[in-house]
Write a structure and sequence with these properties.
By secondary structure, this protein is α/β, with parallel strands linked by helices. A 4-stranded parallel β-sheet has the order 2-1-3-4, with helices on both faces. Helix 1 links the parallel strand 1 and strand 2. The radius of gyration is 15 Å and the shape is globular. The N and C termini lie far apart (56 Å).
Length: 124
Amino acid sequence: MTPRTPALLLIAHGSRRPEANADLCHVADALKARGRYSLVQVSYLELAEPDIEGGGVLCVEAGATEVILLPYFLSPGKHVAEDLTAARDRLSARFPAVQFALAEPLGRHPLILDVLEQRAGEVG
């Protein structure tokens, strides 16, 4: 049996501001440091590189047999529902031996409430 090699493809919208894109790199590095996923690759929907498909290719080239597309988006709007789904489908067609799965966006996860309360508390 071939061992599983999972990867996270962390996806953000992308920005013309390098410091905004650097936030995603920070999150990816922190996820990798936790040790559950040894391969964590950033990618962007637009305005920055690599794009989603390019990030997926980097995962496969690094040996991933499973790629979880992980949206760093709050809600399942058009980008998640349409654009990310289409990117997943294109990657699946291009690499049929690799499993590509699209995770849910952050929005309704219960821990978001903790983060929001903490941020509000930091102000006052």
